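B., you asked whether I could sanity-check this one before it goes into the benchmark set. Here's the sequence:
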Amino acid sequence: MDEGKLKGLMGLCVRAGQGIFGEENCLKALRNGQAALLLMDGEISDATAEKYQRACQRAEIPFRKTSAGFLQEATGKPGMAMAVRAGGFAERMIQFI
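And here's what the prediction gave me:
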């Protein structure tokens, strides 16, 4: 995973309003087909990570666990997961995970 390029894209994605944060919002986006990618922070609990992984597998959406603290460092937002709306940002990010 190229974390440098991914970090830059994540920042742009958030500024463009294409990032979804919060457990319920992320799960809802995965279920409704609004998300095309899910990124989880390395500090996420095993139980929560498993919940996200099951939702991603059901929706056939790629997911990746990043290093600890990476999500907040890249986006400036606290949280354990970020869903990326379908579109150009998600397609580009998938290339780097």
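One thing to flag: The helical segments are 3-15, 23-31, 46-59, 70-75, 88-94. Otherwise nothing jumped out at me.
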